[in-house]
Design brief:
752 residues; alpha/beta; Immunoglobulin-like; 8-stranded parallel barrel; 6-stranded antiparallel beta sheet; 21 helices; 30 strands; 17% strand; globular; Trehalose_synth
Amino acid sequence: MTDLTGSKNMDERQGDPAEPQETEPAPSHALDITFDEQFYPARPRPLRPTARRREHIAGQPPFQADGRNKVYVEWLRNQSMLGDADVLARQLSGQASMWQNPYAFPNPRAAVERASVWFTAYPLSFITKPGQSFLAALGDRDMWEAFQRIGIKAIHTGPVKRAGGLDGWEHTPSIDGHFDRISMAIDPSFGTVEEFRAMCEAAQAHGGTIIDDIVPGHTGKGADFRLAEMNYRDYPGIYHMIDIPEADWHLLPDVPEGEDSVNIDSRTESALQEAGYIIGQLQRVIFYEPGVKETNWSATRPVYDTTGKLRRWVYLHYFKSGQPSINWLDPTFAGMRLVMGDALHSLVDLGTGALRLDANGFLGVEKSAEESPAWSEGHPLSEAANQLLGSMVRKVGGFTFQELNLSIDDIKATSETGPDLSYDFVTRPAYHHALVTADTEFLRLTLRLAMDAGVDQASLVHALQNHDELTYELVHFTTKHRDDHFDLAGLRMTGFEVADKIQGDLRKGITGQAAPYNLLFTTNGIACTTASVITAVLGIKDLSAITGEQKRQIRDVHLLLAMYNALQPGVFALSGWDLCGALPLGRDQVSELLSKGDTRWINRGRHDLMGHGTAGEPGGSALPKAQTLYETLPEQLLDEHSFASRLARILRVREDLGIAKSELIDVPDVSHRGLLVMVHRLPSGQLQITVLNFSPEDVAGSVHSPTLPTDETVTDAFTGEKISTVDDLHSFYISLPPYTGTALLIGSVEGA
């Protein structure tokens, strides 16, 4: 974490904002190192780099807001992310602290060692004390003490920096959940920079860390984009934007009154490509909508530059028009500087320990052969950019993860040079499918495919619910491997047929008549909570009439899903919706939000984690409070049978054995279709077995794996009780009640 105690504040550096900060010299023992990462000694805290962004209080003089007004240009420059990035870079350049950490290769186990259990927060859903900000609530000492008792070691905040755009002197709101960032400043609706730093300090005091977000693919239309439109210095180099000479403005569509740009249609796209201005059509149009977004290009209105000349630009945006794409290979390298500066600001100024890379698969674009779409996905530049980002973050002592739905092959490829961790889109839909069908065959298939591809399970973030839908795109089976053949359900199927079957099973099992409270979200998946997946599986159709016995059943199944994600290598992540047992909101409660087609709002109900008992609205949230099945965390931790207390026991076993840093070595066939068996080699070298029963019936049978040594004792890691001995066939007998699981140890247990 960043050492804040010795930092100068910006008011003391007004004479030279680029003045480098002093850092302590490396101790003599730091010279006795090798080039192998595993031999790097632990670094003393003062050697973590520190820096500060500019603190600019933005005024709004009543002058013309265009490039001819030097006051306006300077006002924009003082708010720009590129400007802040340059100031931060000068403070860090030439400092010994920038060379104290290995950075060349992803190090998932180092990341897991630092924070193996994450809480994923969502600002609009987090109920705080009256008058308390979201960031202040995440720094609450009582909450961190509760997290510490459970075993949670990190909070992923989600994006909390200012986002949206600028229209003249006025800020415009975010169009994409604050992923259209325009500043390194904290958005006041979430709190203050002091509260952010205090949150990081509270996390560190409890042995935890804070995980922030950066967006390497695009910005919003803030100061940087407005300066780019004005052709100011190297700001146009931040973006994929092309200056169209006035003689060819006839090729461009008119911009509607009140708008600052307009999406071009495919005919205009072709005309501009033929004229040599743009590379034309890309591989796909994300968020395609006729009359709104028909291509990935938009044209600006005429804008005065700083010389008084009118200019019009055409710019690329993979996503919405308010999210201009960053150019990672411009001669100025302005885009790269901006993104690196944003990452460093989070790590060395605010004090976070890790970053999520958003939409990091779309960082390269290149002209293809005539009549072919431009190369815009899977480009080597994206891999190179991700390696640079991951390396820079590791260089200052942090780690990164990507939440990008990729094929198993691509997850393996990115794990070799890019982010340290990847979100587990491999088995997430598969373990839901196992629960819905009481059959683990598809789950076992995905685990084995990942093993065969060389994916280290310890490099994955295994999650319960987050703010998104239950994703079931199954990219591995619908893209690169759609025509490959797989054995499933006694049939030989293509990848496309496998995906179609799994998606159909999930739709049938947890939407429609089975569970009218869960909704489809476009073609991506199902809007639901973890609890509402379980209620569907248990046959509960009326969420308002859940009995006490049904609550206990839901809790037990919820713990089974937690065991699947926690009792394997890698990060285990869960949200406030999980800790509270939240159910979906009713359609009528969020009808206005649903009218735009985004059904995910039903799974984002607000929750009262700490029992503040208020309907306050952090971040201007208008979301209703969700119906919850569990008590508040303080109440749950007083009840040994509660979800949180039982989860804490699971996580203690996980921590004591080092399961998060173990290696998955076998996923054997099972004697009952509802069973899942995972064999792990612990850091100690001892074998550990996770056995789970995804079915609603008692299961008894043999666990067999050639990895099991004969005549060794099988011990229950939760109770210390000997339950069996491995026989000459490398197997042992076990029985499990419905929807339960356990962690077993093979061989003598230390201290037993």
